[in-house]
Design goal:
Protein name: LysM domain-containing protein
Shape: globular
Domain LysM: 68-118, 137-180
Pfam families: LysM
Radius of gyration: 21 Å
Strand content: 25-35%
Number of helices: 7
GO biological process, one term: immune response
Oligomer: single chain
Number of strands: 17
Structural class: alpha+beta
Distance between the termini: 29 Å
GO molecular function, one term: peptidoglycan binding
């Protein structure tokens, strides 16, 4: 699942990632090149809209919330944390209830460094929409938004958005949280793979297999290739130091590559495809 987050101030990429998710997942969800020099310290402008991955467990398509932890800064209040820092994805009352702070005024300053658990929306609907693969994005309606404009910007229809959100009329008020279906590519990895069920929104990518494999979603197809050695580029954000072999068995072809060899009968084409991350091994065929 994804959150559509608008930056409330200038922020480094790493600062946005620290609020919600790991750096690699944030870069992938926004199709940013993590191999570019200084990516983690790149400054993003105030008002920029980014897609933030929300890792949550969904049972039979039921909505679940995902919680992140936040350390209060000087002058923070429950209201500013909810409305500004987390862009209206949560209310001050929800944060108050989650943290057992019933007696705290939402506008009273919090202690600097005070730890808060912040619940956020997360929607899966079995990763499908009208029997097609989909990733769901939670979106906070802004002043001036209309449902047709929102639907158009995400390449979906007003009817689809209304059905997903159980809306009786095509009207959304500012600060409403809508669920938007995004076209996606689904994997078919076996149950034994730790990344089974991987699904990628169209036009983006995800890193898997310890950030060693990059799976991208083009229109309708999932393409997995060998990624960079993420540990060398950004060691602080990498889960493993080196990547397992990505060469197909009994072949010189590497993951994601295609090899052609002329023969008397024509041209012999060999490819190497990713089959999931099983027991620490990158399976290929």
């Amino acid at each position: 699942a994804l959150l559509g987050y608008t930056l409330y101030a200038e922020m480094k990429v790493s600062e946005v990632a620290a609020l919600f998710a790991d750096l690699a997942a944030l870069l992938a969800a926004n199709a940013l090149d993590f191999g570019a020099p200084g990516t983690a310290h790149r400054i993003l402008p105030m008002g920029l809209f980014v897609r933030v991955p929300a890792h949550c467990s969904c049972a039979n398509g039921v909505r679940k919330s995902v919680a992140v932890r936040y350390a209060a800064r000087p002058a923070d209040t429950l209201a500013t944390v909810a409305d500004i820092v987390f862009a209206g994805f949560v209310s001050a009352d929800q944060i108050r209830n989650e943290n057992g702070l019933a007696s705290i005024d939402p506008d009273s300053p919090l202690d600097a460094g005070q730890k808060l658990v912040v619940p956020l929306p997360c929607v899966c609907f079995n990763s499908s929409d009208n029997n097609l693969s989909a990733v769901y994005l939670s979106y906070v309606v802004q002043v001036g938004d209309t449902l047709p404009a929102i639907a158009s910007s995400y390449e979906t229809t007003v009817t689809d958005v209304m059905n997903v959100n159980a809306m009786g009329s095509p009207v959304a008020a500012p600060d409403d949280i809508l669920t938007i279906p995004l076209p996606a590519c689904a994997s078919t990895f076996p149950k034994s793979a730790s990344d089974r069920g991987l699904i990628v929104a169209n036009g983006t990518y995800m890193l898997t297999a310890g950030n060693c494999v990059q799976c991208s979603c083009g229109p309708g197809s999932l393409n997995c290739t060998a990624g960079f050695n993420f540990y060398i580029i950004m060691p602080a954000f990498c889960s493993i130091r080196s990547c397992p072999s990505m060469q197909c068995p009994n072949s010189n072809v590497m993951l994601g590559n295609v090899s052609t060899h002329p023969t008397s009968a024509g041209c012999n084409v060999s490819s190497c495809s990713y089959g999931g991350f099983v027991n620490g091994t990158i399976t290929t065929s």
